[in-house]
Amino acid sequence: MTAGPASTLLAVAAEAALAVPGVADLHHRLPRRLAAPAGRNPAPDRTSPESGIRADRAPDGSGWHIEVRCVLDEGRRAMDTAQDVHDRVRAAVISRLTALDAAVPVTVQVTVTRIITRHDPA
Q1: Residue 24, class by beta-carbon neighbours within 10 Å (0-12 exposed, 13-18 middle, 19+ buried)?
Q2: How far apart are CA 68 and CA 49, in angstroms?
Q3: How far is Cα 75 from Cα 71, in angstroms, rounded to an integer?
Q4: What parts of the chain have a pLDDT lower than 50?
Q5: Could you tell me the maximum CA-CA distance found in the chain, to the nearest angstrom?
Q6: Torsions phi, psi of 79, nearest 5?
Q7: Helix (H) or strand (E) holding 10
Q8: Buried-most residue among 30, 48, 83, 108 (CB within 10 A)?
Q9: With contact defined as beta carbons under 8 Å apart, do 20 and 108 qualify?
């Protein structure tokens, strides 16, 4: 693969995860929030969906590990939605790697960080 394989995989994984019914958003990582000025959250339009995804090479270089942190809508079983996210992200990443002639094993971990209820102010 050429420069930026992790960023390519971040975009592919984010798009796949957000396409799953029941996924409201991706949970943006804490370091981004800590980088904001005191007392202010970063503006939503400046936070990319990819910030809810982490892609790391296996220590021995044999594959990729993708971590997806999801915020879900209420009304769907969290376990079912998380399984759908896992399956779709894994398939999308494998497809992209295959298209780039860089097929390697891919593991995906999905964490549900929050479920938004109808009464949540988002």
Answers
A1: middle
A2: 10
A3: 13
A4: 1-3, 31-36, 42-46
A5: 47
A6: -65, -40
A7: helix 5-18
A8: 108
A9: no
Mapped to the 3 state alphabet, what secondary structure does 13-73 carry? HHHHHHCCCCEEEECCCHHHHHCCCCCCCCCHHHCCHHHHEEEEECCCCCCEEEEEEEEEE
Half-sphere exposure of residue 103: CA atoms within 13 angstroms, side-chain side: 6
Tell me, what amino acid is at 114?
A: R
- The residue whose two tokens read 């097929």 is 103
* 37-72 tens-digit pLDDT: 555 554 444 457 688 899 999 888 889 999 999 999
Closest CA to 85 of 57, 116, 110, 114: 110
State pTM to two decimals.
0.79
DSSP H or E segment with residue 94: helix 78-99
